[in-house]
Amino acid sequence: MSLRFEELDFQATPMGDLSLRRRLEPTLGVDVFEVKLAEEFLMSSLFTVAEEELATLGLAAVTGTDLHVLVGGLGLGYTAVAALADPDVRSVTVIDALPAVIDWHRRGLLPVSATLTDDPRTALVQDDFFALMRREPEASTRYDAILLDVDHSPRHQLDPSHADLYTVDGMRALARHLTPRGVFALWSDDPPDEEFLARASVVFGTIAGHVVTFDNPLTGGTSSNTVYVTIL
């Protein structure tokens, strides 16, 4: 168990000040790791069920084996580690725009860092996921699944430059990076968005918005996120 509160890292970034904190949650007696960007709390190690389900639900929709997976957004690492747990996965490439986040894991600062960085199937890449999706993919670089957890939801982006991905044209651009019958799965903090699902249906043959519920030890009740799963 750690100190009651400790700032493990602080970095100024183009999107605002980024901090990684570890604190003791007194009601549970456990260490909690949290990430804050500017004035927004991005993630907490208390709530990882939906991040893990992003990988589980997304990969369950993929047919075949020897799968190549792209994860947009490294964060605390739970989505990538859940993808590595799938025996059909051959490689997991994780893209994050913030080099500090990649450095946290390479320094072993987070609970799953060693699991992530010690696995030879993992590649951590510093890049802008949204800019990457706009680029023409190389013929040999297409993915069986793209798992995205960066923005709060299709309507609430961390940066205005992300907004075009959630349009029909943006999803068409993303689909170029998928193999035939490839899967695009997306985490959202909001309930299923019918307008987003309608736009996704223009590009993808199969679409679903899964509500993922989980216990909230801070309220004593349950909370929920959404995982969208779309198949070409």
Describe the structure.
The chain has 232 residues and is α/β, with parallel strands linked by helices. It has a single domain, classed as Vaccinia Virus protein VP39 (Rossmann fold, 3-Layer(aba) Sandwich). Helices cover 24% and strands 39% of the residues. The chain contains seven helices and eleven strands. The chain has helices spanning 49-60, 78-84, 99-106, 113-117, 129-134, 168-175, 194-203; strands spanning 5-13, 16-25, 30-37, 40-44, 67-72, 89-96, 122-126, 143-148, 178-188, 206-216, 221-231. Helix 1 runs parallel beside helix 2 (78-84). The longest helix is centred in the first third of the chain and has 12 residues, at 49-60. The mean pLDDT is 94.
* Beta-strand content: 35-45%
| Largest β-sheet summary | 7 strands, mixed
Give the full name of the CATH homologous superfamily: Vaccinia Virus protein VP39
Helix/sheet category: alpha/beta
Integer-rounded radius of gyration: 17 Å
By DSSP (H or I, 4+ residues per run), the number of helices equals 7
Domain count: 1
Q: For the record, give the distance between the C-alpha atoms at the N and C termini, rounded to a whole number.
A: 46 Å
